[in-house]
Amino acid sequence: MVSLNPVQIFNAGAEEEKAETARLSSFVGAIAIGDLVKSTLGPKGMDKILQSSGGIQVTNDGATILKSIGIDNPAAKILVDISKVQDDEVGDGTTSVVVLASELLRESEALISQKIHPQTIITGWRKATDEARRALQSFARDNGNNEAKFREDLMNIARTTLSSKILTQYKDYFSKLAVDAVLRLKGSGNLDAIHLIKKSGGGLQDSYLDEGFLLDKKIGVNQPKRIENAKILVANTPMDTDKIKVFGSKVKVDAVSKVAELELAEKEKMRDKVNKIIKHGCNVFINRQLIYNYPEQLFADAGVMAIEHADFEGVERLALVTGGEIVSTFDAPESVRLGKCKLIEEVMIGEDKLIKFSGVEMGEACTIVLRGATKQILDEAERSLHDALCVLTQTVKETKTVFGGGSAEMLMADAVSKLAAKTPGKEAVAMEAYAKALRMLPTTIADNAGYDSAQLVSELRALHTAGKHTMGLNMKEGEVGDMEKLGITESFQVKRQVLMSASEAAEMILRVDDIIKAAPRPRQPDHRHH
Amino acid sequence: MSGSLAFDEYGRPFIIIRDQERKSRLTGIEAHKSHIMAAKAVAGVLRTSLGPKGLDKLLVSPDGDITVTNDGATILKQMDVQHQIAKLMVQLSQSQDDEIGDGTTGVVVLAGALLEQAEKLLDRGIHPIRVADGYEMAATVACEHLEKISEGFKVTPKDREDLIRLAMTTLGSKIVNRCHRQMAEIAVDAIMSVADFDRKDVDFELIKVEGKVGGKMEDTMLIKGVIIDKDMSHPQMPKNIKDAKIAILTCPFEPPKPKTKHGLEVKSVEDYRKLREYELQKFETMVKQVKDTGANLVICQWGFDDEANHLLLQRKLPAVRWVGGPEIELIAIATGGRIVPRFEELTKEKLGTAGTVRELSFGTTKEKMLVIEDCNNSRAVTIFIRGGNKMIVEEGKRSIHDALCVIRNLVKDSRIVYGGGAPEISCSLAVAEAAKKISTLEQYAMKSFSEALESVPLALAENSGFAPIHTLADIKSRQIKEKNPRLGIDCLNKGTNDMKTQSVIETLSSKRAQILLAVQLTKMILKIDDVRGSADQM
Predict the structure, then answer these.
(1) Using CA atoms, how far apart are residues A162 and A21, in angstroms rounded to an integer?
(2) What is the pLDDT of residues A193-211, one digit of tens each?
(3) What pTM was computed for the model?
(4) Which of A387, A401, A414, A444 is catalytic?
(5) Is B38 close to A7, i.e. CB distance below 8 A?
(6) Which of A151, A219, A294, B14 has the highest CB neighbour count under 10 A?
(7) In the predicted model, what is the mean pLDDT of residues B121-149?
(8) Which residue windows are transmembrane per the record (chain A) (predicted)?
(9) Mean pLDDT lowest for which of A32-36, B29-33, B114-118?
C-alpha cells in the first residue's frame, strides 16, 4: 500500500525483456534456429526426421523442417517466416537464408558486446548488402540468348540443386527430367502444367517423364478403354441430380404415381443433358463432379468415355493441356472449344491403373512419375524435384546465373571486405562482420562434409582476393576447385533473394531493444463468473 | 487507511463502503506518486524508439503473433497494459494517432517527462492543482511561441521536392528507411493525386495500402488504380483486358430470391418442366442484360454458380466474384462507374472504365491479384508494399500511413516547424523566459514545464549515442547566442545542427497537438487524488 511498492503496469502474465536481455533472447533464439538447420546445408548435408501425430517425415528441406517445429522465441519465428517466404518466392535456398541471417546475428552479438550501437551496425550492413549485391550482379553470367549454353546452364543448376537432396545419386537423370519438363513450358513458367505423380514401388531410377498427361482416375464401366483422336469435353457440372435452383421450390405431390412421373421427368432432364453433351461431338467426357450410374450408362451406350470426379486441379490442368475449355452449360455446342489428343488409354504403373493422354495439343504439359520404396522417400523426392523445378522456372525468367560451391558467397565477402578496408568509421567493423558471416556458408558446407573447413576457406579467400572468382569448394574431392569446370551453377535470382531476405531479417531483429510479451490467451476461459 | 472509517454519535464504527475490507484504496500524495511511476514506466518503454536512431520493439500477442514496430501508438496498443494510468497513456498516443497520425512516441515521452517534473514539485509541497495551472499557462506560451517560429510552406503539386523531404523526416525512424527516398516519393505522389487543394483536404478513403509478402522492399510501388486480392472467376478468362468497361454489380448471378417467406410447390411434371425453362431463361437474360450495355468486365460482390460462370465465359464476358464491399466502392470511385444492385437497372452510363485490367501472379505459389489501372478518375490510388517477411510488410504499411498523415496535415495547414528537437528547445527557452515574469507559485510549474520539454531532445541525443546533457547545453546556448530556433540535435551526424539545412521538417499541427494533448493528460492525472479498486488490482 505504500508508494514504494513496485507498480505493475502490465497484465498479470505479461513479460517485458529490456535492452541487453531482449537482445540476448533474440540472438539465442536466432542462432539456435540457424544451428538446427545448418547441418542440412550443402551436398553432404544430413537429413532430419520430423515426427508428428500425422506420421514421420524425412527431409533435407529447410522450409519443411522449420514449418514443422513449434517455436516460442519471437526472433526464431521471424527466421521461420523468412524461410517460408523464400520457399514461396523462389522455391529454393530456404536453408541458406536462415543460416546466413543467424550468422549475421552471431557476428553482431560480438559487436554489441564491444558497445557498438545497433544502428551503426545496421548502417554498415546496408552498405555491405548493396556492395554484395552489386558484386553478385556484375559477376553473374547471362547465357539467355544462346540456347545450347543456356540448356547446359539449366542442367548445371538442376544438378547443383539436387545434389544436396535425396535424389543426389540419380541427379543426372533427374536434372534431365526437370530441365526437359521446364523447357517444355517454353518460358511461361507455369508450373501447373507439370504434374507430379507419386507411386510407391520400384526404385527412384524407375521414375520417368511422360510426354503426355496422366490422370489418376478410372474410366467408367463398359466404356471404351482406348480412344484414338479423342475429342475431349472438360466439364464442371452436376451429373448426379440436377437441382432446381429457383429459391424456395420444393416438390409436393398428392399421389405415388405423380412421384414416379416426376422421377421420369428428372431422368428425362438428365438424358437431355447427356444428349446435349454428346451433341458436342466429343468422345471423351471428363467431369469435375460425380457422374451417377444413370448418365454413366447413357455415355457407355453412346460409346463415350466418361471420367468422373477429376479434382479441381486435374480439370484445370486438363483444360490447359488439351486446349479445351471448362464447360458448365451445354446449349451452344458450336461455340465450345473441345480439347484434343491423339490417344487416351489406360496404363499400369505398379499396381495402379492411370489414364494417359498422349499427343496433347499443347506440347507444354508433361507428367513426372516418381517411383520409390517408401512414402517418405517419395515425399522427399517430390519436395526436391519441386525445388529444382522452381529454381529452373525462376532461371528461365531471369536468365542470369552465378557459380555455386560457396564461390558466390566468397565473391561477395571479398567485395565487402574491400569496401570495409576503404571505409573510415565504425561501420567498417560491421562490414567486416558481414563478410565474415558470408564466409560462414562455405565453411558450413565444408564442415558438413567433414573436411578441414579452416584450410579450405582460407585457400578460397586467398584465391578470391587474387581475383579468381570462379573458385569454390569441390565437395567430391574435398579441395578447392574451379566451379566453371565442375559445372556447379546456381540461379542468380535465388542467391540475390537469399542475400536480401537474410539481411532484412537480421536487421529487423537487431533493431529490437525491447520485447513485450502479452499474457498468453487462456485456453479455456471460464465464463461462469463474468 | 485514513478517513475510511467513520463513527456515529455513540462511537460505533459506521460502514460507508460495502465490503470495505476487500477494496483497496490509494489517496493523496500516495496516489499521485503511484500514478506518476506508472506513467514514467510507460514513457520509459517508448523513449528508446524516438528519433531516426531509435530502436524497435518486438511485441508478442496473446496468440503468439509477432509485431516488430517503431510506431508509438502500435506499441502501446499491443502492450497488454493493465494499470489504469498506463491505460490513459495508451489512449493519449491513440488520440495523437487519430488526430495527427504521427508523433505518437513523442507525445508519450513528453507526458512522462511532465509528470516526472510534477513529482518534484509535489515533493516540495506545491498543490497539484497549482502545478496543473502552471502547466496550462506554460502550454499557452509554448504554443504561441511555436506559431511564432513556424514557417509557411508551399504545398502545390509542383513543389514535390520539399514534401518528399518532409516525408523522409517521418520515415527516418522506421525500418523502411532502407528505401528512404523511394518510400517518401510514393507517399507524396499518392497524396498529390488524391488531394483536393481547394478544400484543403485529403480523402484517405481513396488511398489504399496493400501489402504482399515476398520480393524486396525496393519493389514497393504506387499504382494509379485499384488492386484487389481476387482473380478471374473462370481460369480460362482473359488475364489482360484493355479499355475495360466495367459493370459493378451487387446482385448475384442467381435466380431472384423474393424477400418474403414463400414456398414454391412443384405439383406436377408440367410444373417441373416450366421451372427448368424459367431457370435457364433467367441466366440467359442476366448475362444478356450485362452484355447489352457493352460491358466487357463484370465485378460482382456475390458469387455465381458454375453454370452462370461458364455462360459468362462463352459470351466472352470476364468476371470477378466475391469482391468485398470496400473494394467495390473503391473500384466504383476509381473507374467512375455506378454500383448497380439490379440487372434491370444496368445501363451504358453506369459502367466504369479503365485503361487496363491485368492479373499479377507471384512467386511459386499460385497467388494472384487483379490490378485495375489507368482509370478515368485517377484519384484512387493503391500503395503496394513488398518485403521479405510478414513483419516488414506490416511495419511498412504503418510507416507509409504515418507519412501519408503528415503530408495530409500539411495540405490542411501548411505551416511547419523544424525537427530534431529544435522546436522543443526553443519553446523551453521561451517558457523559461516567461516564467520569470510570473509572481505566483505557478512560476515553479512553468520552470518545470520548460525542463520537461527538454526531454525530447535529450532522448534524441541519447538514442543517437551522444552525451545527452552536454549536447543539449551546447545547442541551448547556441540557440540563444545565434537567435536561431532551427538548431537541433544532429542525429544522423551530418555535421550541422541547423535543421533547415538538414531539411528535417515537421508540421506545426503535429507539434502543437503533442504539447496540448500531453498537458491535458498531465492535468487530468494530477487532479486524481483517490483511487478505489478491488484489492487484487493494486
Answers:
(1) 41
(2) 777 888 887 777 778 877 7
(3) 0.81
(4) A387
(5) yes
(6) A219
(7) 91
(8) none
(9) B29-33
Q: Whole-angstrom Cα distance, residue B72 to residue B75?
A: 5
In this prediction, residue A462 carries a pLDDT of: 92
Cell readout for B94 is 491513440
Whose CA is closest to A120, among A429, A422, A515? A429
Nine cell digits for residue B64: 503468439
**Amino acid at residue number B228:** I
Contact across the interface for A262 and B272, Cβ inside 8 Å: yes
Phi-psi label, residue B243: left if phi above 0, alpha if psi -120 to 50, beta otherwise: left
Q: Which 3 state secondary structure label does DSSP give A202?
A: coil
Give the span between the Cα atoms of A292 and A271, in whole angstroms: 12
> How many degrees, rounded to 5, is the angle at CA A333 between CA A327 and CA A334?
120
Chain A: give the shortest CA distance to residue B35, in Å: 9
Please give the share of chain B, as a percent, with pLDDT higher than 70.
93
Give me the amino acid identity at A229: N
Q: What is the pLDDT of residue B536?
A: 54
B102 neighbors B405 (Cβ within 8 angstroms): yes
Give B81 to chain A, closest Cα distance, Å. Answer: 4
Chain A residues within an 8 Å CB radius of B175: 507-508, 511
| Cell numbers that stand for B104 in this block | 505518437
User: Left (φ > 0), alpha (ψ -120 to 50) or beta: where does A89 sit?
Assistant: alpha
Residue A372, SS3 per DSSP: strand
Residue type at position B267 = K
Q: How many residues does chain B have?
A: 538
Distances (CA, A) of B33 to A168, A432, B30, B101, B451: 70, 49, 5, 31, 19
Instruction: Give the whole-number percent of chain A exceeding pLDDT 90.
Output: 13
Q: State whether residue B349 sits within 8 Å of chain A by CB.
A: no
Q: In Å, how far are A20, B48, B402 from B70, measured between CA atoms?
A: 18, 9, 11
ipTM: 0.75
Percent of chain A with pLDDT over 70: 90
CA atoms of B78 and A145, how far apart (whole Å):
53
Residue B435 has which C-alpha cell? 516564467
Nearest to A321, CA basis, from A286, A281, A283, A363: A363
Quick one: closest CA in B to A97, which residue? B388
Residue A503 has pLDDT above 80, yes or no: yes
